[in-house]
Design brief:
281 residues, mainly alpha, 14 helices
């Protein structure tokens, strides 16, 4: 296998560890969101010096959307199952389809519009499982994370060349915005601190560096399919190490969303266009 594909597989695997670490940590969602982002910002700024440049005015919108995404993803993981959090965030392509004509002037193909009802079907199944009030609101936060992730994707496409700056400064913004509620949480244990460092340096920072390196020699189509490994592995790690079982309808809904994403990507390729791979959270 070509090294570039190994880089992408490694990035997807690192991304997939977020759910289980959030579940195992005794820290609050605010503490994890703040600490992870601040550590990731430092790691990315050191590894990718070009990211230290401040984003443009248009880039600030993508920066805000990215910051919202990484915070809501962590909070959702604390409130609902990790499978629900990652699958619902992966509804972002649905919102990109709906908003790209307005934001980017790009009209979706017929095949992409055909994927919309498939996404909606998968989305609706998440709410058929028996949910406690916390899980319901966690699902709603995860849905919001999908919307903000879509806005981040649109922002990055509208401000090409600023991706690294958006990620560095987006993590700075996310870390500082959640710092006050994070200070009110419990005192972290040594294990909590270790997991927080892993989340910031490896799960977010190093994973993005590997992703960027892998994209240099891998077609966007293939890259977007390879990183679908992340939402597949996320609930697996959480089940094996934290004992969390996703609901049966959530598994069916997640499978439908993954298949719809793969179908949309393959349809775009067969039509002669290749969508850019997406930075993960």
């Amino acid at each position: 296998m070509h090294p570039s594909r190994l880089y992408l597989l490694a990035a997807a695997t690192l991304w997939s560890t977020a759910g289980v670490l959030v579940k195992l940590s005794s820290l609050t969602g605010w503490q994890l969101a703040s600490g992870r982002s601040l550590i990731a910002a430092v790691a990315l700024a050191l590894a990718l010096p070009e990211g230290r440049k401040r984003p443009s005015a248009r880039g600030l919108l993508a920066t805000f959307a990215y910051a919202t995404t990484v915070v809501t993803f962590i909070v959702a993981n604390k409130l609902t199952t990790s499978a629900n959090a990652i699958f619902l965030q992966d509804t972002a392509p649905l919102y990109v389809l709906l908003l790209s004509p307005l934001v980017l002037g790009e009209r979706p193909s017929r095949g992409e519009w055909m994927a919309v009802p498939v996404f909606l079907l998968g989305l609706s199944l998440f709410f058929l499982d028996q949910l406690n009030p916390g899980q319901f609101w966690g699902n709603m936060v995860a849905l919001g994370s999908g919307v903000s992730f879509a806005m981040c994707i649109l922002g990055l496409r509208a401000t090409r060349g600023e991706g690294t700056s958006v990620l560095v400064w987006g993590n700075v913004l996310a870390g500082l915005a959640t710092l006050v509620p994070a200070l009110e949480g419990p005192r972290p244990t040594a294990m909590d601190l270790g997991m927080l460092v892993f989340l910031g340096v490896f799960q977010l920072g190093c994973a993005y560096a590997l992703f960027e390196r892998g994209l240099r020699e891998t077609p966007a189509l293939e890259a977007s399919l390879i990183i679908l490994l992340e939402p597949v592995l996320n609930p697996v790690w959480t089940f094996l190490f934290a004992g969390e079982r996703p609901g049966p309808w959530a598994l069916v809904g997640g499978a439908i969303i993954l298949l719809a994403t793969a179908w949309r990507t393959l349809w775009a390729a067969s039509s002669g266009s290749r969508p850019p791979a997406q930075e993960e959270t």
